[in-house]
Each structure stands twice: as C-alpha cells, then as structure tokens.
Design brief:
The complex is a heterodimer of chains A (270) and B (266). Chain A contains 10 helices and 13 strands. In chain A, the strands form 3 sheets. A 6-stranded mixed β-sheet of chain A has the order 6-7-8-3-9-10, with helices on both faces. A 4-stranded antiparallel β-sheet of chain A has the order 2-1-4-5, with helices on one face. Chain A has a 3-stranded antiparallel β-sheet with strand order 11-13-12. Chain A starts with a strand and ends with a helix. The radius of gyration of chain A is 21 Å and the shape is globular. In chain A, helix 3 packs parallel to helix 5. By secondary structure, chain A is an alpha/beta fold. In chain A, 40% of the residues are buried. Helix content of chain A is 35%, strand content 29%. The longest helix of chain A is centred in the middle third of the chain and has 16 residues. Chain B is elongated and about 65 Å long. With 266 residues, chain B is an all-alpha fold. Chain B has one domain. Classes of the chains: A alpha/beta (270), B mainly alpha (266). At the A-B interface, helix 2 and helix 3 of A face helix 1 and helix 7 of B.
C-alpha cells in the first residue's frame, strides 16, 4: 500500500484551471517532488490531500484513509507547510507555536527547540510585524514539531534566504533518511533535484512527466566540453562557469529551466 | 473530540475586551434609566413621550408604565438591551469563522487532528458564552439597581423577561454565525450577518411608529420577542420565545454542518 495515493483526481474550476485526471503515488519513505509553474494545480492537489476540498471525481488517500472523510485522523501523523502562510496576527510567534502544540494535542515541546535552533528563529515579536521569511520559519516549526511521519510541503522555501533554503533542504534530506514520506512542491527544479527520489511535473492540471530524479536530470542536463588555450585560462573558466577542469579541457553543464523542460514535453506548441 | 478547549480559551480571551466595554455601556444605561423611575411621579420620560411620541415609540418607549418592570420593559427592552448584545454578536461571529477563512489563518486550525465540526462547535460555544454573559450581566445590574425600590420588582418576572431576551439574542447569534460559516469572505459574512438583523431591527422600529406602518411587524423576527407579553405571561409571548430558541438551535446546527461540508480554499 502506498502512503499517498491519488487516483484520477479531477477538480474543474472552469477556464482550464484546476486538476484533471491526476494520478500518482508516493511510497513509504519516498521523497516525491511536485514540480510545476504557478497556477498549475500543485496547491489544489495538496488541498485535496489536506481534506480542505472535496474531489469532484477520483480518490485521494493517505495511509489507506480517505483524505476528505478521515482528515482529522490523518492529521495526527502529518506535517504541513502551507503555500501561503497566514497565522493569527494578534499573537507573538512564541504564543502561536505554543498554541499550535496545545491545539494539536502535543504533550511537551516536541521538536520545537531543535527547529528554532536550526533556523535561528527567535519568535518573540508579534506575527503581524514579522517578515515573510520569519513567518515561513514559524510554519516550518509547527509542521515539524510533532515529528510527523508524512510531510506535505507546499513551496516550503519561499521567502527564505539561500542559507536557510539550504538548511531546509538538509532537514528534508535527514527526514527522508529517517524514513519519512515526503511530498514537496516547488517551481524550482534545483530544489527538488537535491531532495527527491522521483519527480512529477504538472502543467495546466495534468501530469506532464513522472520519472526518477536521475532520469529527469539526464534528460535535462546538457554538458559541453570545451578546450581552452592553456591550463590557467581553463582553471579561470572552470571557476567562473562552475565547470570541471581537466588540463586544458573544461566540462560545463547547463540546467534547463522548468519552462524549457516543459517545452520539451509539449514540443513547444503550448 | 467535539470541542477544543485551547481554541475556546483563545477566543474567550479575544472576546473579553469587547465584553467589558459593552458591559460598562449597559451598566451606564441601565442604572441611569432605572434611576429615573419614580413610582409617584411617572414624570420625566413620559414627558418626552408626550413631546415626540413617534421617536420615542420607534425606540420602544411608550408612556404610561406604572410598575417598575413595565417601566424597564418599555425603556430598556425596546432598544438598548436589544442593540448592545446584537452589536457584540455581529462583531464576534464574523471574527470567529469567516475572518479566519478570509485571511487564511483557518489553515492553522484545520491542519490539525481536530474535526471541522469540532472547530465550528468550539467557535459557536465561544459566541454563545459571550451572549449569555452579556444578558446575565444585564439582569444582574437591573437587580442591583432595582434594589433601590424595595417591593417594586418581582424577581421571577425579571428573570423570565431576560430569558426571553436571551432567546432573541441567540437567534440573532444564529443568523450571524451561520453567515460566518457559510461565506468565505468577510465582506459577504458581514453583509448578511449584520445586514439581516439590522434590517429586521429597522422594520421593528418602523412598525412601532404608527398605524400605517404596523404591518411591518409581520416581517421582522423581533416581533417574536414581546416584553410586555412575557411579563403578563401571555401564551403567545412564551410561544415566541420558544420559536426564537428553536430557530437559534436550527441555525447553529446548520452553521456547523455547512462549515463541516464546505470546500475551504485556504
């Protein structure tokens, strides 16, 4: 039995928005990257998994339970970072984190302190006054504090600075090693490439590609080997373009942007 | 579990300031009005009623009350004790559900092992607690102020009258809370949750002003609350109370149900 099972999910918002006949599975202990441009249907899919909205067609299951009907019991083992962070503005960060712990029935602090340290967060001030990055960090703390077995992360690094993005990716890698099942959405290939075993690419509500990260990387990573005049120039070139020098030869690779990857799948006609 | 104490505590903390302000306002009005009661000379307020009968009638004040309870019924239960809890209800009901959905903060409440029904039920309980507190407080202030006139007030009558007021306020609470649960945007929740009770209240005031507008009373639920009828023990007035209470229950059940079943785009 797969931990996350989406079967023929359809939710039509009209005007070609929504998700259409979407199917994929995420296995126990697997990290699944959910890639797509804005408005492709990533958040809509995750809202179904969270039990916020009911599917028009098809089924959405987590651990064999129906995500709409049994959402409260699924939430016990689930951690969620919403795509758009909005908390009780009147509370301080500390108050909100404490509120969440109590509200979720968590005894004690759980992993709160570990998370605060990891992201160097001091949540003393009012949430209203916090920057987007601070709020995002609070979202991370509350998603991980009860040490959930399943993680639904909707663009979890948005608003974080590169250093913190890196720390978050390390956290996800550790969680994966600890056997957690992870679904992480993003619009950046690099981010999911570093954490996920498999990647699903969604566009206009339909799954455009579903493959292992390895296979997708090979398809979309183009390497060039250039020969330069002398070793010194080669070393400088390698330094500037993140290439691998080998004598006077340097191998550089170019990653395609997500849009270019899509063009590949759609043959450029969309 | 059908109830979250943690959430309830937070919401009561958010209600407390509004409750204190509205409580103070009621203390002021109730004590001033009751202080004007003079069994020997039913003077000052009745003079006003003679000078501008339409305006005084519109706010439920009619001359000629000779008992303290009749005096209170006409000068307190026609306007001030209807409006103050109603405004509290409108403000809080919207903030308890619709505002969280609108701002997205509802995510924090639904992304937890707490059922939707339990969330809505908790918020409903927080609203109802506030309404009961305001009405109970009004009754207490009345009793204290009326103790200046020993033997003038039958305590039982006053309690039944306030029970009637509670039924009315719960019914208004039901309307506001249902609107808050039904709509995803604050502006719609307020338009219906505040608009319907306000419109009904205007119709009630209109129906008081004269024969021509009397028919308006058939179009407003405020008619179901009949203070003088309740004091007199009229069966129709008691039936009105029961109807308001039943309506309130139905609206609250509908609100919790609609919130449990709707799509949340948060």
């Amino acid at each position: 039995m797969s931990v996350i099972e989406i079967n023929n999910l359809t939710r039509d918002y009209g005007g070609e928005r929504g998700v259409f006949a979407l199917s994929f599975k995420v296995e126990q202990g697997e990290a699944f990257g959910f890639l797509g441009p804005n408005g492709a249907g990533k958040t809509t899919t995750i809202r179904h998994l969270m039990g916020f909205i009911r599917s028009q067609q098809g089924s959405v299951m987590i651990s064999g339970k129906d995500c709409w009907r049994d959402s409260a019991s699924i939430q016990k083992i689930l951690g969620y970072i919403p795509g758009e962070i909005s908390f009780f503005e009147d509370m301080t960060g500390t108050e909100f984190i404490r509120f969440c712990a109590k509200y979720c029935g968590l005894r004690g602090e759980g992993r709160t302190k570990e998370m605060l340290d990891r992201f160097e967060l001091r949540p003393k001030g009012k949430i209203k006054k916090m920057s987007k990055g601070m709020k995002q960090k609070i979202g991370i703390v509350t998603a991980f504090m009860h040490n959930p077995e399943i993680l639904l992360l909707d663009e979890p690094t948005s608003g974080l600075d590169p250093l913190m993005q890196n720390r978050f990716i390390e956290l996800v890698q550790e969680e994966k090693k600890a056997g957690k099942t992870i679904l992480m959405s993003s619009h950046m290939f690099e981010e999911v490439e570093r954490t996920c075993d498999r990647i699903g690419i969604i566009r206009a509500g339909k799954l455009a590609a579903l493959d292992s990260t390895e296979a997708l990387r090979e398809k979309h990573l183009r390497s060039y080997t250039v020969t330069l005049a002398d070793e010194k120039t080669a070393a400088a070139f390698a330094g500037d373009f993140a290439g691998k020098p080998e004598g006077t030869r340097v191998t550089v690779s170019a990653k395609q942007t997500l849009e270019e990857i899509f063009l590949n799948y759609y043959g450029g006609d969309q | 579990m059908m109830f979250s104490f943690t959430l309830y505590k937070r919401e009561m903390k958010k209600s407390i300031l509004t409750l204190v302000i509205f409580g103070a306002l009621m203390t002021l009005y109730v004590s001033v009005i009751i202080g004007m009661f003079d069994p020997a000379l039913m003077g000052s307020l009745d003079e006003w009623a003679d000078i501008m009968p339409e305006l005084m009638a519109a706010v439920g004040m009619s001359a000629g009350a000779t008992t303290l309870i009749g005096f209170m019924s006409s000068y307190l239960y026609g306007f001030i004790l209807l409006v103050i809890p109603m405004v509290f209800t409108i403000l809080r009901a919207n903030a308890l559900v619709a505002k969280y959905v609108d701002s997205g903060a509802m995510v924090a409440l639904t992304a937890a092992p707490v059922k939707r029904g339990a969330i809505a039920f908790t918020q409903m309980k927080a609203l109802v607690t506030g309404i009961i507190a305001l009405v109970a407080y009004a009754a207490t202030v009345e009793l204290i102020c009326a103790s200046k006139f020993p033997g003038e007030l039958v305590v039982g009558d006053l309690l039944v009258l306030n029970l009637g007021l509670l039924c009315l306020q719960l019914f208004i609470g039901g309307i506001c809370f249902f609107a808050s649960c039904l709509f995803n945007e604050t502006k719609h929740s307020i338009a219906v949750g505040a608009g319907v009770p306000a419109l009904m209240f205007i119709l009630k005031m209109l129906s008081n002003t004269g024969e021509a507008a009397k028919k308006a009373k058939y179009f407003t639920f405020f008619t179901l609350f009949n203070p003088d009828g309740i004091i007199a023990g009229k069966a129709s007035a008691i039936a009105g109370m029961i109807a308001l209470f039943a309506g309130a229950c139905a609206l609250f059940i509908a609100a919790v149900t609609v919130f449990s079943k709707k799509d949340l785009h948060i």
